Amino acid sequence: MATQCPRLSPTPVLSYCDSGASGNKSDHHQNTNSALHISQRWMPQCSGRLLALHANAGAQKKVGRLERTAAKVGVSSEWQQMLSWPLNVASTADMKGRSSSGGPYITSDKGLGMSRTIFFEVEILDSKTKEQLCFLDKVEPHSSVGDIKSLFHKSYPKWYPARQSLRLDPKGKALRDDDVLQNLPVGTSAILYFRDLGPQLGWTMVFLVEYIGPLLIYLLFYIRVPYIYNHKYTFTSSSHQVVNLACACHSFHYIKRLFETIFVHRFSNGTMPLRAILKNCAYYWGFAAWLAYYINHPLYTPPSYGETQVNYALIIFVLCEAGNFSIHWSLNSLKCEGTKCRRFPNPSKNPFTWLFFFVSCPNYTYEVGAWVGLSIMTQCVPVALFTFVGFIQMSIWAKGKHKTYNREFKDYPNLRMSILPFIL
Amino acid sequence: MASGEEDGTVEEKETNNKKRTKGAIATAWLTFYNIAMTAGWLVLAVAMARYYLQKGTHKGLYKNIARTLKFFQTFALLEVGHCAIGIVRTSVIVTGVQVCSRIFMVWFITNSIRQIQNEESVILFVVVWTITEITRYSFYTFNLLNHLPYFIKWARYNLFIVMYPLGVIGELLTIHAALPYVRRSGMYSLRLPNKYNVSFDYYYFLIIVMLSYIPLFPQLFFHMLRQRRRVLHGEIVVEKDE
Question: What are the tens digits of pLDDT across the range A138-161?
């Protein structure tokens, strides 16, 4: 039973398991020590502590995941132990290099046909200056890009993983977090290029910020705070009923959205860069201010067809809000993992979900419908413009989603359009 | 198997032929368009020179060339179409912004507000536009005919460094001169109350337009500078993507 450690790389730093390289045929304890010492000199930024952290953290994480997967698959506990054995070996090896068997990082054949695990080394370079930022050795081949990002974060605390973009080629596409190292087209030594994506915010935070703005800004215009309108109208209320109704509807719309963001939607771990958030917020907040200005203006003109127009528009608004909520609820019950869903959404007993017979994204349809209702109710051009721009944007999203559904599910119904039944 | 391959190559040949004929038609049209535009702006340049030499003053010059200017500047809208259908490899947005700002100046400022037509700033930007457009269209023409003399390439990628800022100054001064007249006449404005519950104040709109030059002009200018570096010095410039 050979415990000959394979040469992991040409550099002496890494091949501390190869007794030939270090010229020291004594126990591995000494080899490991000297090799770590070399690596510390070589890579001041990735200290020896990092290697240990990697071994322990990565191993612990992996043990959990592997064991969980094994349990799910229904593997017996003995096999579970077998599966997690190489990692257990790694985690039990401490920095002094005292190991039970031949070397902390190499598995030996246990007579079960398990092959030797080759460890990868990962070099991370800045994609613009090409200078070396970090060097990770002894990376598990089945570790993901996400794991590498966590390791990189430990050397550079200000670059949390969501902010990192790693790619195989400086001008290529960014790697996904769930890409596995050994499935990438690299040898055992990988070079990744790093780019800082700038500060990021999680999806929940993004939506909370985007929706709280319009809610509060509209209310400020509704109560007519000073310096917006003529000073004699400050803190007065409008004589028209429809203005109060419009305020109630608008506020309900955004409160419902905030509620859904907190309690209904399940977001993937994605984030959004700060600049995009500022742009979105400027758009939502600015438009809300513009339309609120006109609806709550002292010289506001109520709709031409009076109460009838307002009542019908209100019915449309309420129905569409209910529909929108039903769709979000049914999407929530789909049990998707991030962006991958096992089934596409289908109509259920709720009549509002019957729109699924005709469109892929009825939530957008209902959203447009609600805003159309509000436009008719207020008879206000800025509201209609907001509806129109929103419709354009949501159509683009709906078309993309529709295409994804058609691509992923072979039995996707043909009758469905993306956002407007039979039309779009 | 063999017939399948043949079908494949026949289809390929057909699409290649289609592409080639499309390419030939597109090139022919673009060549015609660019020659026509070069000629038009040359006519404009000659008309301006003649007027100034005859009358010795710039007063009334704009009125003289107004129709030609409006015609050829409006015709430039076609360029947005060229980018949209892909026969010209430029961003639709960049071209769109440039053409729109020109159309706006010609139709909504100098055409509508008579009182500023004799301002010096108007002459400034019209002269700048003429020089820039003649250089640009002759550059495109020669490029399409594959006989580009170096001095035209040099002019296209160097004159803008002076012309562009001068043009912006001329345009901004013109809009600024127009402001008092807009305010007094209340043109193009919609006041409350009205049944559409919207208002539009052309005066404040013009102020916003003037302010928008601040972010837009550097972006367009540096875009041209990057193109210049790429074309004249063959540098590979890494674009900042979002």
Answer: 888 888 888 888 888 888 888 888
Query: For position A44, what pLDDT does the model report?
Result: 40
Mean pLDDT over residues B88-102, rounded? 89
Q: List all residues 6 or more positions away from A134 whose beta carbon is below 8 Å from its beta carbon.
A: A43, A45, A46, A123, A124, A151, A152, A155, A156
Spatial distance between the Cα atoms of B62 and B169, rounded to a whole number of angstroms = 18
Looking at residue A242, what is its pLDDT? 94
Q: Is A32 exposed, middle or buried (0-12, 13-18, 19+ CB in 10 A)?
A: buried
User: Whole-angstrom Cα distance, residue A227 to residue A197?
Assistant: 40
| Strand ranges for A150-291 from DSSP E | 164-167, 189-196, 200-202, 271-273
Q: Rounded to an integer, what distance in angstroms lies between the CA atom of residue A308 and that of residue A304? A: 10
Average pLDDT value for residue range A15-28: 37
Nearest to A138 by CA among A65, A43, A66: A43
- Asked if A300 lies within 8 A of B238 by C-beta distance, the reply is no
Helix (H) or strand (E) holding B215: helix B202-233
- DSSP symbols for A360-393: S-HHHHHHHHHHHHHHHHHT-HHHHHHHHHHHHH
Which positions of B are annotated as active-site residues? 164, 171
Dig out the tokens for B23 from the structure: 């390419």
Q: Are B213 and B101 in contact (CB under 8 A)?
A: no
pTM for the model stands at 0.68
**The pLDDT value given to residue A133:** 86
Q: Which of B191, B197, B239 to mutate to test the interface with A (most CBs of A within 10 A)?
A: B197
Task: Please name the residue of chain B whose CA is at the shortest distance from the CA of residue A302.
Answer: B195
Please state whether A143 falls in left (phi above 0), alpha (psi between -120 and 50) or beta.
beta
Nearest to B193 among A295, A299, A378 (CB): A299
**A363 pLDDT higher than 90:** yes
CB–CB contacts below 8 A, A to B:
32
| Distance from C-alpha of A221 to C-alpha of A231, rounded to nearest angstrom | 13
The length of chain B in residues reads: 242
Nearest to A380 among B198, B238, B242 (CB): B198
| DSSP-derived 3-state class of residue A313 | helix
| Residues, chain A | 424
CB-CB contact of A289 with A221 (8 Å): yes
CB under 8 Å to A135, separation ≥6 — which residues?
A42, A43, A45, A46, A121, A122, A123, A124
What average pLDDT does the structure give for chain A?
A: 76
Q: Are A198 and A163 in contact (CB under 8 A)?
A: yes
Q: Cβ–Cβ contacts within 10 Å for residue B53, how many? A: 8
Tokens standing for A410? 């072979």
